[in-house]
Amino acid sequence: MSDNFVIKAEKVSFAYDQNSPVLREISFHVRAGESVGIIGANGAGKSTLFQLLTGLLPHQGDLQVAGLPVEKAHLAAIRAKEGFVFQDSENQLFMPTVLDDLTFGPLNYGMSPEEAEAAADEALERLQIAHLKHRQNYRLSGGEKRLVCLAAVLAMKPEILLMDEPSITLDPVHRRNLIEILNGMGETKLIASHDLDMIMETCERVMVISEGKICADGPAREILQDQALLASCHLELPYCLQQPHWK
Questions:
Q1: pLDDT tens per residue, range 67-116
Q2: Is the terminal CB of the chain with fewer CB neighbours within 10 Å at N or C?
Q3: What is the domain class of 5-242 according to CATH?
Q4: How many C-beta neighbours within 10 Å does residue 81 have?
């Protein structure tokens, strides 16, 4: 695409019914390779936005991913370029073992068993969890499930990553590893999270959603230091900025 935008939204809206609008004519563009944090209070519409981008919910307005309108005829092509890490790991892991889950998608997209396992191995190594390859999913901790979900998405080799609360349930060591991994990724990333410290470390740009609208969109550090803006959207400063030693 000549303008290098991989996501375009123009006056996109969604409502479960006419009296309950969730997103109201939001507009934004995302360039290839950008890391964009999506923040907002509970119920602001962050998860709904991701479901619209993957075609899981209908929408009004103009929404394009990878140059294709998000509509039924193009969903297979769009989803081949996207990877969506759900907020609830239990909704994403459904096979008996980690390897089964990581190879399920690649196999269904036409990879041979050998290619699918190689893609799984690469994703596990990338996330430093190769030791979980043959683990039964029911024996994974909450944090391990989060990382396996991300590995399952990476095994599909997506160009665009949509991550809904990726750091939830992670202990400090795995959270730090995740931040370092995300910062080393060249894929386009949209990260929705209440973990504003992680957003500050991994995203160059932040969009704030409040009451179904984008009320701010700009450089991450600028927005995440704006206490008045965050308070007006029922958010607080990142924890690191609340400390007296921060400069």
A1: 999 999 999 999 999 999 988 777 788 899 999 999 999 998 889 999 99
A2: C
A3: alpha beta
A4: 17
Stretch (H or E) spanning 107: helix 98-108
- Which residues does residue 30 pair with via DSSP β-bridges, in sequence order? 7
Based on its alpha-carbon atoms, the radius of gyration of the chain, rounded to whole angstroms, reads 18
**Shortest CA distance to 200 belongs to which of 184, 220, 230, 219?**
220
The model's pTM: 0.89
- Nearest alpha-carbon partner for 102 in 122, 84, 86: 122
What is the token pair recorded at 94?
A: 């459904």
Q: Are 205 and 220 in contact (CB under 8 A)?
A: yes
Contacts of 233 (CB under 8 A, 6+ apart): 40, 41, 44, 208, 209, 210, 215, 216
| 153's tokens | 């998405």
What is the C-alpha to C-alpha distance for residues 34 and 65, in angstroms, rounded to an integer?
14
Residues 6+ apart with CB under 8 A from 64: 7, 8, 9, 70
Bin 45: left if φ > 0, else alpha if -120 < ψ < 50, else beta: left
Residue 51: closest CA among 20, 90, 91:
91
* pLDDT of amino acid 170: 86
Concatenate the DSSP letters of all residues of 205-221 into one string: EEEEEETTEEEEEEEHH
Structure tokens at 121: 């191995």
Token digits for 236?
């607080």
Distance CA 226, CA 242 (A): 12
